[in-house]
Amino acid sequence: MDLSDLAQVNFDALPYWEAAAKGDLVVARCTSCNEAHHYPRAVCPFCRAETIAFEPASGTGEIYSLAVTRIPDKPLRVVAYVTLAEGPTMMTRIIDAPEDVAIGDPVRVDFEPHPEGLTVPVFRLDRN
Amino acid sequence: MSAAYIMGAYEHPTRKAEGISVAQLHMQSAAGALADAGLTFDDVDGYFCAGDAPGLGPMSMLEYMNLDVHHFDSTDTGGSAYLVHVAHAAQAIASGKCSVALITLAGRPRAAGMKSAKMPLAPTPDTPFEAPYAPSVVEMYGMVAARHMYEFGTTSEQLAWIKVAASHHAQHNEHAMLRKVVTVEDVVNSPLVAAPLHRLDCCVVSDGGGALVMTSESVARSLARPLVKLRGAGEAVGHLNAGRVDLTTSAASVSGPRAFAEAGITPGDIKYASIYDSFTITVLVALEDLGFCEKGKGGAFVADGNLIAGEGKLPFNTDGGGLCNNHPANRGGMTKVIEAVRQLRGEAHSAVQVPNCDLALAHGTGGSLATRHGSATVILERL
């Protein structure tokens, strides 16, 4: 089973992947308690209501933490957690990151095709 | 609750298991622990194993060892599972479900050619949100370290002291993979694997195994070994809280206080601590969460040799730990309990034996601190 298959059977989060395929980031929010969460579930992890709506995200956030791997003659590999403007923190990668990429840096979403068929949200620095 | 005792403990001496199956490693470890206790396979009426055991739950290993038990448990919280098993075995013994419980662990990732632990592609709801980014285990713990440094000013040099202390202990362990004593400079000058973590911030990849035998009080008192009693235990799972991520506090902040409350003692009473050490940062976060120092003060606590036996206030991982000695099956919880038992019996190496060691703690962190992890803490007392 590859990643695309896994995402397809994880029915809870299908709208997230369908939006990502179109280049949109969405956030799951419960219409009962108004709390946003990540990763998206069919049941609110806070109030346990099955009233989840997917809303367009601003696509902005800041780096909560990161780990930087330097391989000679290759771009920096940066695995990170990004805290979205909407609240939840999500695992991702920072692409085209400069050497001084750091916790607290503002970032903006982008998308990358994954070899196993998903389009996945990644982020790049947005220092203005 | 009636008491349960760890009466047998055995660490398999191999670190590279060429030509030995995982099942045989389990059984050799079991035989070692039973012999240590003065018991035989025929005495075993409870069996505990985790995901490293081949097969579905305990069934295949029970068949391989040809055991007939009437209580079993295969709770799997990664490397901390064996500390959970100690607690669960004690509960089973207390409620009369069994009187001689065997707990085994074994694996051979090194002989199988695994250079570092990889995250399996499991059909879990979280996988599609993590696997596409292919975080290595070092990257995940690197994120924990980076956040701890950001929030509390912890330094690479402070983390390095944890490896330095482990290496001081490992030099006396003939079975340890890394016996060379290293300095803070050696650690911070070793290659960055996933910044801020260096190669020497990481544990070893090793083959091997271990086993424990726990018994009821009446069985324990019939044996010739020192009485090591489980005095308190706690278990908890930490996760990403649906996006409200906190990488600097682990579930040890729950399992630790519960274990201390059950034991009726405080961190200051502990003479020796086995702390799960997949990475240096794993130790630092656990020490804070267990209450050995304030949150954020772990860097200062571990510095200047404070974890070195004979020098510091809290001797830890006197076998060299996962950082230098052994991390069989990429699961270090079993060896944490075994070294605590050695210390309580006065059977640790003389160079690292803690004088009058009557109260010890062992703590495990399984899974990944940067996603979801199982914490388990046990407090052991020599009577």
From TrEMBL, chain A:
The record, for InterPro entries, names:
ChsH2_C, ChsH2_Znr, NA-bd_OB-fold, Thioester_dehydratase-like
Q: Please list the residue ranges annotated as the ChsH2 rubredoxin-like zinc ribbon domain.
A: 17-50
Q: Which residues form a coiled coil?
A: none
Q: Where is the ChsH2 C-terminal OB-fold domain?
A: 56-112
What Pfam families does UniProt report for this protein, alphabetically?
OB_ChsH2_C, zf-ChsH2
The signal peptide, as residue positions, is: none
Task: Check the record and name the PANTHER family matching this protein.
Answer: BLR3430 PROTEIN
Name the UniProt record assigns to this protein: DUF35 domain-containing protein
Taxonomic lineage per UniProt? Bacteria, Pseudomonadati, Pseudomonadota, Alphaproteobacteria, Rhodobacterales
From TrEMBL, chain B:
What does the record give under GO molecular function?
acetyl-CoA C-acyltransferase activity
> Which positions fall inside the Thiolase C-terminal domain?
235-381
KW tRNA-binding (keyword) present: no
Q: Which SUPFAM superfamilies match?
A: Thiolase-like (SSF53901)
What keywords sit in the KW lines? Answer: Transferase
* Cited InterPro entries: Thiolase, Thiolase-like, Thiolase_C_2
Q: List the Gene3D superfamilies.
A: 3.40.47.10
Spell out the CDD domains in the cross-references. SCP-x_thiolase (cd00829)
**Is Transferase among the key words of this record?**
yes
User: What's the protein here called?
Assistant: Acetyl-CoA C-acetyltransferase
